[in-house]
Design brief:
8 strands, DNA-binding, 8-stranded antiparallel sheet
DNA sequence: GGGACGATCGAT
DNA sequence: TCGATCGTCCCC
């Protein structure tokens, strides 16, 4: 086990190119300490959105609105947005000040606060004899960008928060994953993005069962 | 003021 | 494959 285990990331961690940072996020934990309890999961799937040049990005063409403004600030903060009128997605702001890039977290492997996550997701708790949720049930908690926000209790109140301090932060779990353990491919649900549809900017941990469908 | 749309989810 | 559901954006 690494001596880095359990440490919260510091600001310098975010000073790397967005595609590199996206892969470095894989394997790290996203944690939310809420009044009702702490919930966390290991990041197993992400997508990078590279600002003005990327037709799939909310900041395409330098679009600057109340919704997108946090992406123009320093990296390591939370960009959350509403989607389809009923879901929220969580992103890590990336890129230097003035360069509006972000990394969408698409799926987690639950690690802490699983009963709390199940309650938030309103999933009936079917347990094994040892008290753990069945794998099939644990997957339903966080295998999608909207699901993981609901499970962790992330809301628009967390818009812009600093991910190097509680209540929402990133925690190291060991050494970075080797490239051989990482798969990549086109991003999901961006049919409107023309040539950007094909960019292989979705990254996930090979073979991990908690990756979204 | 109003219309169109969406980095999703869950049921069919 | 499709409908739900509403904040955001942009145009009128």
């Amino acid at each position: 086990m690494s001596e880095q285990y359990g440490k919260i990331v510091d600001k310098s961690f975010f000073a790397q190119p967005t595609l590199t940072l996206a892969k470095r996020l894989l394997g790290m934990e996203l944690v939310h300490e809420a009044p009702e309890g702490t919930a966390a999961g290991r990041i197993v799937e992400v997508e990078a959105y590279l600002g003005p040049e990327d037709k799939a990005a909310h900041s395409y063409g330098g679009r600057l609105t109340e919704r997108t403004k946090v992406m123009y600030g320093p990296p390591g903060h939370a960009y959350l947005f509403h989607i389809y009128g009923m879901h929220i997605c969580f992103n890590v702001v990336s890129g230097p000040v003035g360069k509006p890039e972000a990394i969408l977290v698409r799926a987690l492997e639950p690690t802490q606060g699983i009963p709390l996550m199940a309650a938030r997701r309103r999933i009936a708790v079917l347990q094994e004899k040892d008290g753990r949720l069945k794998l099939r049930q644990r997957k339903l908690l966080t295998n999608g960008p909207g699901k993981l926000c609901q499970a962790l209790g992330l809301t628009m109140e967390h818009y812009g928060c600093d991910l190097t301090v509680p209540p929402v932060y990133l925690r190291k779990t060991g050494e970075p994953l080797p490239d051989e353990a990482i798969a990549s491919g086109p991003r999901i649900n961006i049919d409107y993005a023309e040539e950007a549809r094909e960019y292989p900017w979705r990254f996930w941990i090979k073979g991990n069962p908690f990756v979204s469908k």
